[in-house]
Design goal:
Strand 1 (about 25), helix 2 (about 30-40) and strand 2 form a beta-alpha-beta unit. By secondary structure, the protein is of the alpha/beta class. The chain has helices at about 5-15, 30-40, and strands spanning about 25, 40-45, 60-65.
């Protein structure tokens, strides 16, 4: 990270094509940058030790607990 290759490989191995949308949940700027570089949505989770991050990094959504995720 922030190299998008691992994310793209994981999506390929799951059978996701260009028409599928992936999402990256991350707690660091590197996670969010990797998602942006891979062209997928990002969810920034604020939990220790990463309690604050510059919103200019460009995450799509923000949560403070994994319990906030809904499928």
């Amino acid at each position: 990270k922030p190299n998008p290759s691992p994310l793209k490989l994981a999506m390929k191995r799951m059978g996701m094509g260009p028409h599928n949308k992936g999402v990256m949940v991350g707690d660091s700027p590197h996670d969010i940058t990797a998602a942006n570089n891979a062209g997928i949505s990002s969810i920034y989770i604020t939990r220790p030790p990463h309690l604050a991050m510059d919103s200019n990094i460009g995450y799509d959504f923000h949560i403070s607990s994994l319990n906030e995720l809904q499928i």
